[in-house]
Amino acid sequence: QLQVAEFGGGLVHPGGSLRLSCAASGESIMYFRHYDVGWFRQAPGKEREGVSCIGTSSQTTYYVDSAKGRFTISRDYVKNSIFLEMNYLKPEDTGTYYCAAIAACDVATGLGEVYFSGQGTQVTVSS
Questions:
Q1: pLDDT in tens, 94-109
Q2: Residues ≥6 apart with Cβ < 8 Å to 110
Q3: Residue 126 C-beta-side C-alpha neighbours within 13 Å
């Protein structure tokens, strides 16, 4: 059994920063490092959007165009965690952010099929 949980959301002013964390847990935690992982977000009334992902060796990363230059994804193999550093936040970044283990992270096409994800953490960017 393997599951993930997100932390770090909150209310921030435009131009501010947040760091989201995603921690894996469960009996099969030793396998977490073998998954490509990523972050999705969903805003009210909008479809789910793949924001960023990172491969098993951290050599491959992907960012949606709107996040390039502002967001940084990373993973910690010892802590079995992934992180999303978000800077220069904009109101359009508002949404629920979900961490997920995915079938593949592709530099061009982004996040593949979701194997499992967490309950999400809310990010609100507003003045």
A1: 999 999 999 999 999 9
A2: 38, 50, 53, 62, 64
A3: 7
Q: Cα separation of 4 and 97, whole Å? A: 13
Task: Please give the single-letter amino acid code of residue 79.
Answer: K
Quick check: 118 and 23 in contact, CB under 8 A? no
User: What digits encode the pLDDT tens for the residues 11-65?
Assistant: 999 999 999 999 999 999 999 999 999 999 999 899 999 999 999 999 999 999 9
74: nearest Cα among 19, 17, 126: 19
Cα dihedral: 14, 86, 81, 114 (round 10): 90
Picking from 116, 108, 126, 122, the residue whose alpha carbon sits closest to that of residue 1 is 116
d(CA 1, CA 30): 10
DSSP state, residue 14: T
Predicted local distance difference test score (pLDDT) of residue 68: 97
pLDDT of residue 91: 97
